[in-house]
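Dear colleagues,

As part of the handover before I leave the project, I'm documenting each prediction I ran so the next person doesn't have to rerun anything. This entry is a single chain, and its sequence is reproduced below.
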Amino acid sequence: MSFFKTLNVNENNDNKSVNLDENIEKVRCLIIGSGPAGYTAAIYAARANLKPVMIQGMEAGGQLTTTTEVENFPGYPQGVTGPVMMEDLKTQAERFGTDIRWGEVTSADLSKRPFRIIVDNKKQIDAETVIIATGATAQYLGIKSEQTFRGAGVSACATCDGFFYKGKKVAVVGGGDTAAEEATYLAGLAEKVYLIVRKPIMRASKAMIERVERTENIEVLYEHNTKEITGTNVVTGATLIKRKGESDEKEVKIEIDGFFLGIGHKPNSELFAKYIDLDSVGYIKTVPGTSKTKVPGVFAAGDVQDSIYRQAVTAAGSGCMAALDAERFLGEQE
């Protein structure tokens, strides 16, 4: 990276200030995002001598930094905490030469190569290839107690955390397919599952509703809203509001050990929507079996393009694909 600097000096030639301005930086491979997909892409891209630069984003390490125990990622037989696993992946990426930087991509022009990326509204990077690994953000209800018990009984991923509630009582909030899938998955582990639905009907598909209704240990609580999640250090219950009529409500308390959000995820793809195809929810569309987007040289990996699995291991796998696709693309161009 090259720099030029302008010195402001006084009449006695004492340096009073130095203004350091960066020229436009040119890179072969720019990775946006730093979860399992981003770090894995960085490992593969660095080993392929693409000299990748990674912009970590606002949540360095992604969603896993907000979780406690991770027991289903290969290579950790005793389990590992999310933050430790992300630090391990970061260290491995740095070992092979990835340039990992703090910062947030604030604008992107993917209309032509090199792609123009602006970081923190001031730094311009021109990239020959871009790997988008910005993830997805779980939707929350917006109540204070959600954040209080986040990682201590509140989860947005039943597949990730359900094992910890084996034989216990849990609640899932939501009325769509995501909530129904989470509830039926948890029903295979937990003693009891409350499915909290704010409307008098579920909006899930007919097949998913029938699965819920056939599962004996799921109790659907229609027309209930969550007022508060309760507990001390961990979740022990929830306070719900049950609508009995237009102006008649009553408070209902349930005892639970875990509270799961099943109201969906929001992929972090808005910045790129002008240039690449998104589905109806906002997930980036890729060519089946690849990480390729509609823009040659732009690839997507991890939860920003995966609305089905949303697991750390599948994100890592897609990060590998993106790096290999980027390497082959550059090889074809050169």
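The chain has two domains: 25-137+265-333, 140-261. The longest strand covers residues 123-132.

All the best with the project,
I.
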